[in-house]
Amino acid sequence: MSQTEPTSTLQEDAGTTLPHGAAARRGPFRAGERVQLTDERGRMNTITLTPGTAYHTHKGFLNHDSLIGQAEGSMVENNVGQLYQALRPLLSDFVLSMPRGAAVVYPKDAGQIITMADIYPGARVVEAGVGSGALSISLLRAVGDSGYLHSFERREEFADIARGNVETIFGGPHPAWRISLGSFQDEVVAQEAPGSVDRVVLDMLAPWECLDAVATVLAPGGVWINYVATVTQLSRTAEAIRADGRFTEPDAWESMVRGWHLEGLAVRPDHRMVAHTGFLMVTRRLADGVTGLNLKKKAKAEFTEEDLSAWTPEAVGERAVSDRKLRRAARDAASTVQTRGTKSKITDAETGGGAPGH
């Protein structure tokens, strides 16, 4: 399968060369971009600026044209005097409001993945389980234009949604991104050279099934990080890694985020928090021919046939997503890109933004 070298996509802004997508984050509001409106009661809504249209509420309407050309952080007034604060959505805002077909990786987990897996500019990264593209966006920001992210997704509908969301936030295709359709464990060894990948990020139901594929493409010292939803998945993956011997002892954790209410002297924790979303587990590839340390354990893990046959999406709490909902989310993601003047769709087993291959 042929692969091409990346073309230069750096942008010029006032004589300064910027990384891909950076120019779209600066300057006045432009037609086609998303703007976050906050009203006087603190309620937020995100709109896509479209000339000639208006944002309607039960308290009047706000013309989009009154926002286009305004500086970020402006205060605008609708037809009945309702004030709105206008800002570009942050990445965390975009992820939670973008079109989706699958559950997204929350910002708190994406940040942990970037840091704990040491995703750095120029790194070569592969991921599986693209979903709606939330984690792909964070990974692309981390590897930069000079890096490489190859994403694998089983379902074409999810891939289309992810592509639309990625192109929306970057203002078009990202030069470091490739996306392929198919099973990760089959496709990654066919498309990536042995030992050529720096980091592997898996968000899938049964990551232990990918153990041989990960060990093949991951360079010695490379990091493999898994995002799983349940303790049973976490246990099964950890025991498979230990039994294999080609990786370091896995570490696992979860993070919880609790906001605080700040109003005068009424400073207290919020009543709601983002608690459990998933577990993260990280391990590293050892050098070829080296066997990992045999750390002493108090108990030996055993799995029954009933355990091994229970790994279905329904059994671990995943909700089925209807084809109708997926098609609608894909249209929503693509429509935002169209407004900016770009549109693309996966039409075969593999497409990409021209990132380097092997």
From TrEMBL:
Residue ranges of coiled coil: none
Keywords linked to the UniProt accession: Methyltransferase, S-adenosyl-L-methionine, Transferase, tRNA processing
Region (Disordered): 1-30, 327-358
Residue ranges of the TM segments: none
Organism domain of life: Bacteria
Record-annotated tRNA (adenine(58)-N(1))-methyltransferase catalytic subunit TRM61 C-terminal domain positions: 96-261
Organism of provenance: Arthrobacter silviterrae
SUPFAM superfamilies assigned to the protein according to its UniProt record, in alphabetical order: S-adenosyl-L-methionine-dependent methyltransferases
Biased composition (Polar residues): 1-11
CDD domains: AdoMet_MTases
PANTHER family reported for this sequence: TRNA (ADENINE(58)-N(1))-METHYLTRANSFERASE, TRNA (ADENINE(58)-N(1))-METHYLTRANSFERASE, MITOCHONDRIAL
Bias-annotated ranges (Low complexity): 21-30
Name of the protein: tRNA (Adenine-N1)-methyltransferase
